[in-house]
Write a structure and sequence with these properties.
This protein is of the alpha/beta class. It folds into 2 domains: about 5-25 and about 180-230; about 35-180 and about 235-245, Rossmann fold. Helix content is about 40%, strand content about 20%. It has a 7-stranded mixed β-sheet with strand order 3-2-1-4-5-7-6. It is globular and about 60 Å long. It starts with a helix and ends with a strand.
Length: about 250
């Protein structure tokens, strides 16, 4: 039976989810660049494109008609967490593909959730054809998510080392998030999570949540404006994205 606090929490989460592409959302910085990044990532890809940890398969709609898209996800993750149906159920650490059978692969916000990420990278190195690409994105300064399956964080230097170890050459890399944007993102997540906790605990401080619709967009807009006026700074990104080529 659902408690009142669970009902309130569920309502708040649904309400906020509808705002994810606006500055009203606590994680706006994590969402508003997503579609453009996917378009850029999928542009020019051809042949067999393997999307590891595909969830709802968002990249599919940005790929051209000459692409054979294969979405792969772990069974329990797809069934219990996302309620999605990938093309293939499999473990990213043991891919059901023959050697050099994949032209390109996507590994977007997945590697941090694998207990043995080196096994996944070794499998992708085996399955991707020479000259093929792996587009990888991982969080950096970002809260624990999808617990308890959140194991790792990498710097750009750690990613470079991992690429070299597994026979990839880094051709593109991007630190995502100016320090002010990263600070705003994490501050808004912290504020929102605190209000959710108060709601679950039936703490009267939850009434302070009425200020969130003002605080969140104010923090987002201020950080975005000041970051746009300042120079690019890779000190504290909230994520990294890179393109690796299989040598």
């Amino acid at each position: 039976m659902q408690s009142d606090s669970d009902g309130v929490t569920g309502f708040l989460r649904k309400l906020v989810a509808n705002l994810q592409n606006t500055p009203l959302h606590p994680q706006w910085f994590a969402f508003f660049r997503e579609e453009r990044s996917l378009r850029q990532t999928c542009e020019g890809l051809a042949g067999v494109v393997l999307d590891v940890g595909c969830a709802d398969g968002k990249p599919r709609r940005h790929l051209s008609g000459n692409v054979q898209y294969v979405g792969l996800d772990y069974y329990s993750t797809a069934k219990d967490w996302y309620a999605t149906r990938p093309d293939i159920y499999a473990d990213a650490q043991s891919l059901p593909f023959s050697d050099a059978s994949v032209d390109h692969s996507l590994l977007l916000d997945v590697l941090e959730h694998l207990p043995y990420p080196d096994r996944c990278l070794a499998e992708l190195s085996r399955a991707i054809k020479r000259g093929g690409s792996l587009t990888i994105q991982v969080p950096f300064l970002y809260p624990v998510h999808d617990a308890p399956l959140d194991f790792h964080r990498w710097t750009r230097f750690g990613l470079l080392q991992a690429a070299e170890k597994h026979g990839f050459r880094v051709t593109q890399e991007q630190a995502i998030g100016h320090p002010l944007e990263t600070a705003a993102l994490n501050a808004n997540i912290a504020l929102s999570k605190t209000v959710v906790n108060w709601a679950q605990q039936k703490n009267p401080l939850v009434l302070l949540g009425i200020f969130l619709p003002v605080l969140v967009p104010a923090i987002n807009c201020l950080a975005w404006g000041l970051a746009a006026l300042g120079r690019k700074d890779d000190l504290m990104p909230y994520a990294y994205r890179a393109v690796w080529i299989r040598d």
